[in-house]
Known about the structure:
- The complex is a heterodimer.
- Chain A has helices at 3-15, 20-32, 34-68, 72-79, 85-115, 131-139, 177-180, 312-325, 344-351; strands spanning 124-126, 129-130, 156-166, 172-176, 185-189, 195-204, 209-214, 228-229, 239-244, 251-259, 269-272, 284-287, 291-300, 307-311, 355-363.
- By secondary structure, chain A is of the alpha+beta class.
- Chain A has three domains: 3-68; 84-118; 124-364, Thrombin, subunit H.
- In chain A, the strands form two sheets. In chain A, strands 9-10-11-14-13-12 form a six-stranded antiparallel β-barrel. A six-stranded antiparallel barrel of chain A has the order 3-4-7-6-5-15.
- In chain A, a hairpin with a 5-residue loop joins strand 5 and strand 6 (195-204).
- The N and C termini of chain A lie far apart (124 Å).
- Chain B folds into two domains: 2-112, Orthogonal Bundle (Rna Polymerase Sigma Factor, Chain: A), CATH 1.10.1740; 122-187, Orthogonal Bundle (Arc Repressor Mutant, subunit A).
- Chain B has helices at 2-7, 12-20, 24-43, 49-69, 78-96, 114-137, 141-150, 155-162, 167-187.
- In chain B, helix 3 (24-43) packs across helix 5 (78-96) and helix 6 (114-137) packs across helix 9 (167-187).
- Classes of the chains: A alpha+beta, B mainly alpha.
- The A-B interface holds A 3-4, 7-8, 46-47, 49-56, 59-60, 62-64, 66-67, 69-76, 78-81 and B 1-2, 24, 27-28, 31-32, 35-36, 39-40, 43-44, 49, 53, 57, 60-61, 64, 123, 126-127, 130-131, 145-146, 149-151, 171-172, 175, 178, 182, 185.
Amino acid sequence: MREEELLEAIERYISGNMAADERRAFEQLRLQNSDVDQRVIEHQQFVGLLKQYGERVELENRLNAIHSEIDVHTLVEEATERPVWIVQLWRNHHSKISVAASIAIFAILGTLFVAGSLSSKSGYIELRREVDKLRTDIRGGKYRNVGQIAKPAVLSSEKYRGTGFAITGNGLIATNFHVIEKADSVYVQNAAGKSYRAKLVYSDPNSDVAILKITDTAFRNLGPVPYTFKKSESDLAESVFTYGFPQDSAHYDDGRITQQSGLNGDSIDYQISVPLNPGNSGGPLLDSRGNVVGVVKARLTQQQGVYFASKSSYLLAALDSLAQDSTIRKPILNSKNTLSGLTRSQQVKKLRNYVFLVKVYAKN
Amino acid sequence: MNKESKIATPTDSEIVFGILNNSESAIKRLYVAYFPMVLQLIINNNGTPDDAKDIYQEAVIVLYNKIKKGDFELNSKLKTFLYSVCRRLWLKRLNQMSRYGGDLKDFQEYVPVEDEVEDQNERNLQFSKMQSALGMLGEPCKTIIEDFYINNRSMQDICERFGYTNADNAKTQKYKCLQRLKKLFFQQK
């Protein structure tokens, strides 16, 4: 039997178009010849698959036709989960909200920064005295001594006051950098009320030390300073005192070294219990034997009784640098202490001529 | 449209008998009634409306074949069955696309339909092989085969359409075409 005839027979057999005897004969052949049997089954399956395929294609077309009638867009709108309004608000506007939030954060940080709250030195104020304030205080009747109002200069007027003290007898004066920071010109006034013009010869903002030199021709040598400068660090609880100009006349106060480091562990400073006020800045801190152990400079506003002075070693370091950085020769420091052994009041009396009121003039 | 279809949700037996009786409207009503449910499932689980259409049609075909085969046992609602099949299919699809985050958001209860989905997968594979075999077959073979085996046309019709002088020629041609189709079909992996 030829292939083609066999196939035709199989098709007729499957479709049931065979006459009864032919069918019997074919079934006989299937039983005898497993090859033919195989062919029948295979053909049946293949044609079945073909038919199913046709049906599937047709069904898909019908479904597509149905689908095309559906308004999918509207359904999508309805099927999309409506999140709660706050989530929706966030999704729709999150970029705007983010921008607004960043601006708010920046504004807050900026304000805090400007207000100084973020500075690690919060509540730390340096104790130069602002003269405008002084003036209003005087007008307010707090002080009787009206005659001491600073006279404004033509271009610049007196802005700040601090204290300074002689390093050597020839007019080298130590004070704080923050006192003379904004100065156009600086005058120092001695206990007798005589002012001398001075110029800045060295400053170190880091240790807050400034060194002035009296340039005034009227200035006469002071003679050797009565105190010496302590190179080593002073001990905790050591009795110390300062002498300076928080007001217009000299002012004495004493206390002890309460901590050997400053704010946040700053090793430049001592913490002391000597009460300081604006104007004290730049004044000497002396121990009971008449050694200069530091330069007083600041206090905390938010804690009572916390005051700061920079250590004398930094002043000495500044003097070393001064010699390197300027034409001034390295000052020969007094090694003979004439204060030791004296009572405190005698010591202070001796100090009088060596501690100055520093007046700082600056443009308005 | 959605609201109307909600009102006119057909009963399950209506659909089953409709499909068994080859009713065109039954399948349409079925399709329209449950598409929104599947759309909701798909688009809320990382899918597009087109994905929803593919998945849903696949599921409707599974259901259709199941009903046609006569072994659809009403142990679950048609709705639940459709949802379950779609859910299963979409999970598979998400896994294939590696888009599955491990957490499918569900909107309906569902029943296990792994077997049905596997069967369907198997059949789809066969059909796609058949489709590409037919595609490669070329004309006039393709049309002859389709007309005879799928559209159930008589050899007489086919003879006339293709201008064969006698039925024997047409039969020889059809035989050759079928042999080639089989060859193409089984060649594919």
